[in-house]
Amino acid sequence: MATPHISAPDDAFAESILLPGDPLRARYIAETFLEDVTEVTAVRNMLGFTGSYKGTPVSTMGTGMGMPSASIYLTELTRFYGVRRLVRVGSCGGISTDVKMRDVILAIGAGTDSGINRTRYNGWDYAATASYPLLRAAADAAAGMGIDTHVGNLHSSDLFYNSYNNALEIWQRMGVLAVEMEAAALYAIAAEEGAQALAIVTVSDHLVTEEQTSSDERERTFDQMVRIALEAIHNLEQG
Ligand code: HPA
Fold first, then answer.
1. Catalytic residue IDs
2. Which of 55-59, 123-127, 217-221 has the weakest average pLDDT?
3. Which residues, other chains included, contact 42 with Cβ-Cβ below 8 Å and sequence gap of 6+?
C-alpha cells in the first residue's frame, strides 16, 4: 500500500519511530544507531528507514519543517502504517533564561499560535500534551545516562520569522521554555489516532541571549536526544 506521501509496504514501519525534521537526519539516525536497516520510503526525498535498536524494531523518518508538513507524515504513519509511538527529535529556540544553549527539553505540553488544533477540536483549545509513559521513560533514560533534562512546555509556532508583538514577554510570563514548530501538532495527531507521542528538543539558539550553535555542535547534541529516545522506546517495549 502507499499513501499520497509515503510509498512503503503495509508492514514497512515499526511501531516506534524517531522523527527529525530533516530527512538526512533520519538517514543519519538509521546509519549510526540502528541495525539491519532498510530504506522504506523516499517520496519527495522525505526519507524513512526501519531497523532495530538492541533488538527492538524502530523506524525513523523526516517530517519536514512546521506543522502542516509534519501533520501529513504523522497522520499517514499513524492512520495507515500502524505507528504507535512517535518521538520527535528536533531543535528549538530557548525562551526561558533557565534553559541554556544545548540543553535538552522533554516537552510535557505545547501551546501554539497555529489554528490547526482548533480546526481539529471544534474551535476549542486542545491541551496538547505528551504521553506520560513515554515522557517518564525518556526522563528515566536520560537520568540513567547522566544527561540533564528540563521538563516543561514548548510553544509551537507557524512562523520561524515571526513579528508578533511582545511574544517573548508573553511566553516568558507563561513559563514556556522554548519555541519550535511541530510539537503541538504531533501531540494532537497522536491523541486523535490513539498513539503515544513525545517531543525531545535541544536548544540550538536562544531568543534572549541571541546565541546560536554551529552545525557541528548541533550534530553532537542531536546524538544525545537520539540516545534518550531509543533507550526510552527500548525500555518501554521490553517492559
Ligand atoms: N523558532 C522556531 N523554531 C525553532 C527556533 C526558533 O527560534 N529554533 C529552532 N527551531
1. 205
2. 217-221
3. 7, 48
